Task: structure prediction
Amino acid sequence: MEIKRLTCIECPRGCSLVVTVENGIATDVKGNFCPRGKKYAESEVVNPVRILTTTVRASDGRMVSVKTDAPISKNLLFEAMERLKGVNCSVPIKTGDIVVENFYDGVNVISTCNVE
Ligand code: SF4
Result:
């Protein structure tokens, strides 16, 4: 049995969670103000995931802020950043437009800004 201390990142409240882990599975979660914290802790113990937010270069040299439209495995974040260095997105582009389709297993990279 192992005790892990996590901070829930599901909302700005940032509850401090104390998670009991047995055989790689969260068997008890304390400190969560709402059920989302329990779900977050259970997922975080097995396969931590994150939304990737970064920038890519536009075809005219400007930078375009982007994010994945769903969380990806935390283990993939470095590789994902490396892959995005080679991406050149065309402009104009609007918030929500797909910059890279199916970047990882159906997860797209989308623009988070408008660039005229
Ligand atoms: S447990 Fe609920 S209230 Fe607490 S940070 Fe997570 S989502 Fe927010």
Remarks:
- The first strand starts at residue 2 and ends at 7.
- The chain has a mean pLDDT of 95.
